[in-house]
Amino acid sequence: LPSVSSNGSDSNSDNDIVDYIEMTNYNNTGTDDYNIIYRQKRNKNNIASQKSRLKRSQKFASLKNEKFYLIEKNENLKATANNLKKQIANLKDLLVNSYINY
Predict the structure, then answer these.
(1) Could you tell me which residue, 54 or 11, shows the higher pLDDT?
(2) Dist. CA 13–CA 5, nearest whole Å
(3) Domain limits at 88?
(4) Which pLDDT band holds residue 5 (cuts at 50, 70, 90)?
(5) What is the Cα 26 distance to its own chain's centre?
(6) Which of 19, 33, 92, 98 is the most buried (most CB within 10 A)?
(7) Distance (Å, rounded) from C-alpha 13 to C-alpha 4?
């Protein structure tokens, strides 16, 4: 920082003061630009994170629904398989009984 003597006169030239002020403004602008860019990057990342979390939770909900659907379908298929086994047993009994009665 340019100094001022005790008698009030400048110990540095006016150009030095102007140069110092311009340098100070440049540094603040650079810092402000950095902060703006940093904030923009953070905001962009926050949005991407939110989208990712939402997508993950939607996928989880979808998988959960699919799980319940597949469990129900599996139970129905097991019931159908048991009914078919019973029909096979009944048909075998009919065949054996018809052979014996013949």
Answers:
(1) 54
(2) 12
(3) 33-101
(4) very low
(5) 39
(6) 19
(7) 11
Residue type, 97: N
Query: Residue 17 in contact with residue 10, Cβ under 8 Å?
Result: yes
Per-residue pLDDT of 18-66, as tens digits, reads: 666 665 555 555 688 889 999 999 999 999 999 999 999 999 999 999 9
User: Is 67 part of any domain?
Assistant: yes
The answer to the question of residue 93 being in a domain is yes
1 domain-assigned: no
What's the number of domains the chain is made of?
1
> What is the SS3 string spanning the chain?
CCCECCCCCECCCHHHHHHHHHHHHHHHHHHHHHHHHHHHHHHHHHHHHHHHHHHHHHHHHHHHHHHHHHHHHHHHHHHHHHHHHHHHHHHHHHHHHHHHHC
Between 98 and 9, the more confident residue is 98
Residue with tokens 């989880």: 60
